[in-house]
Amino acid sequence: MKITSIAIYAIRLPLKQPFVISYHTYKDMPSIIVKVETDEGLIGYGEAVPDEHVTGETWEGTYQVIKHTLGPAILGINPMEIEKVHEIMDKLIYQAPAAKAAIDIACYDLIGKKLQVPVYQLIGGRYHVQFPITHVLSIGEPEKMATEALEQVSKGYTSFKIKVGRDVNGDVARIKAVADSVKDKAVIRVDVNQGWQTAAATLKGIKALETVDIDWLEQPVRADDIDGMAFIRSHSTVSLMIDEGLKGARELKEIIQKNACDRINIKLMKCGGILPAVKLAYQAELAGIECQVGSMVESSIASSAGFHVSFSKKNITSVELTGPLKFTKDIGDLHYDIPHISLKDQPGLGVNIDEEILKELTVFEDVLKES
């Protein structure tokens, strides 16, 4: 089996409402979809959702990297040789993890379809039966966030991620408002997205939240401040998660050496796809660190890929892959049984793509073919 063509689609996924986090407000989600075909007639889909603030990639740049660099290099390659695929990509370009993730995910979709098994069977088999879904609250006024949380509790949600990071005092008010509204009905997780910037500001926020039972506090300081995370951890009892500060094995090695967190947030877009994510999970397991698989607000394609990784690893104890729930239109049919997710046993990613919606959401596209 070899890759004979790659179609590339630059799309924008429409959101039900703006997604607001510390460093940006998203009115829609820009994504790059790849459709990879082989000489055996099999089709695999992959996705890249880059973020200038996290992966260091832009939507337009990721499209060009796939079109001119990664795509041409894997034409004629057997997608089942996934280690070789990554070696080829890594030799061609440094980093560019979201672009590489799109190729990686499509290859795994093809491998699963070729062998007629779900992707999770390729990376360890199914360990988890299902995961509860965490509802993510965008930054807003405290009362509005509290009202939304209470509404979602009535739908069955039992955990919330509160997005904060604008200012410590205002964020404390937001967190307390949500915690008071749901009381003992749900667990509270707080994601600062680097917004508190320093260890000093973070410790101020933690002190002000002493009466709130926080499941964990995620990435309060700047991404490259691993020392700051270690300092916070040694001066508080709040469980800490690193997100933007973890991209690959090099960062995780430093995190482990410095005892900088209790949990890590693995994202396929940050590390380069399914294969690197699995490697990170194993590396974390050796250090006794629990993992979450998180999202860059992706469509059914990349969200499904993240779920396959999550279901196959025992030290992945939470997921946050709710992108499809935030869109008015999605290109795939990943199914949620709110407030849980249960994967199907279909080959590959197990996602059917609506080609009409894909075309409708496409802003520009190209096709690469083997010469």
UniProtKB/TrEMBL annotation:
Keywords: Isomerase, Magnesium, Metal-binding. GO terms for biological process: peptide metabolic process. Its EC number is 5.1.1.-. Mg(2+) binds at residues 191, 218, 243. CDD domains: L-Ala-DL-Glu_epimerase. Residues 142-239 form the Mandelate racemase/muconate lactonizing enzyme C-terminal domain. SMART domains: MR_MLE. Pfam families: MR_MLE_C, MR_MLE_N. One of its GO terms (molecular function) is racemase and epimerase activity, acting on amino acids and derivatives. The active site is at residues 163, 267. The keyword Magnesium applies. Its cofactor is Mg(2+). It is an enzyme of class 5 (isomerase). Binds 1 Mg(2+) ion per subunit. Belongs to the mandelate racemase/muconate lactonizing enzyme family. This is Dipeptide epimerase. The lineage of its organism: Bacteria, Bacillati, Bacillota, Bacilli, Bacillales.
